[in-house]
């Protein structure tokens, strides 16, 4: 599941380059994380699924917003995706 999340993260990064809307893309990532948690999780927990949705949206919003703001600066731009691979763990 981790590999699939990272692939989706890179795909959404490409979507961000086209759309220029970081919070919309973060919503897509948070929704995808929620779907993975609910449908591929061991058991359904309402509070746990809401926490996964909120934490995923928060971290992915920061990630995609930084990518959007640093798009013109090449070196800081590429450090964000490298450090952002940790977002796949959420």
Element layout with pairings:
Layout: H1 2-19, H2 22-40, H3 46-69, H4 74-84
Q: What portion of residues belong to β-strands?
A: under 5%
Total beta strand runs? 0
How many individual domains? 1
Distance between the termini: 11 Å
| Spans where pLDDT lies below 50 across 5 or more residues | none
Secondary structure category: mainly alpha
Question: What report would you give on this structure?
Answer:
By secondary structure, the protein is mainly α. It is built from four helices and no strands. α1 (2-19) runs antiparallel to α2 (22-40). It is elongated, with a radius of gyration of 13 Å. 17% of the residues are buried.
Key traits:
single chain; 90 residues; mainly alpha; 80% helix; 0% strand; elongated
